[in-house]
Write a structure and sequence with these properties.
This protein is α+β, with helices and mostly antiparallel strands. It has helices at about 1-35, 70-75, 85-90, 125-130, 135-140, 145-165, 170-185, and strands at about 40-45, 50-55, 60, 65-70, 95, 125.
């Protein structure tokens, strides 16, 4: 109950402080991508239930190929594209701290002890988020990014998220939030 109360206070505060930035970047993303600047995608949530995650759009189709735009690259690097997820936290299908939600075919396919991760609400940040803050760059260096994700990254994320499941606490969450904020400040342009 205290985690949910914290999530509500955090998301309302975040939306009040950053709502102007979300709206401005949504408008710029709409212009940049020549479409609705809001990206909505099905992700796997708590107890394996799918939900819609909200992000700012960072890609547009050029000759049928999806490409990250210059503005899209900026909002991805600064994680501004993730800010609409404060709304996901407010409505209760995400938490501030918890395993990052993945597309169908990953967390929903876990077996045995690993399925305990699904008891947690997905989060804006996590131990795995901190460890793999440069995941896109890491995957771009791989000859077969999908294979690398499926055999190296995803299993390690499962291990980190299971560790969080067994050891999470309010003060542990605050520590993860602090580390995430410091990581974002170091990346700021």
């Amino acid at each position: 109950m205290s985690k949910r109360l914290f999530d509500i206070i955090f998301s309302i505060t975040g939306l009040l402080l950053l709502g102007w930035l979300i709206i401005l970047c949504w408008l710029l993303s709409s212009i940049d991508t020549r479409s609705n600047g809001l990206f909505i995608q099905k992700r796997i949530g708590q107890f394996g239930k799918p939900f819609n995650i909200y992000k700012l759009k960072s890609m547009k189709a050029i000759n049928g190929v999806k490409t990250i735009t210059r503005f899209g690259n900026f909002i991805r690097k600064t994680k501004i594209d993730e800010l609409p997820q404060l709304f996901n936290v407010l409505i209760g299908n995400m938490s501030v701290v918890g395993p990052r939600p993945d597309v169908p075919g990953y967390y929903d396919k876990l077996q045995g002890e690993h399925r305990k991760i699904l008891e947690l609400k997905p989060g804006l940040t996590s131990l795995a988020t901190l460890k793999y803050a440069n995941e896109e760059a890491l995957l771009a260096q791989q000859q077969n990014p999908l294979h690398y994700n499926n055999t190296i990254l995803f299993p390690d994320k499962v291990t980190l998220n299971l560790e969080y499941y067994h050891n999470h606490s309010f003060f542990g969450d605050l520590k993860i939030i602090w580390k995430t904020a410091m990581s974002l400040l170091r990346k700021a342009p």
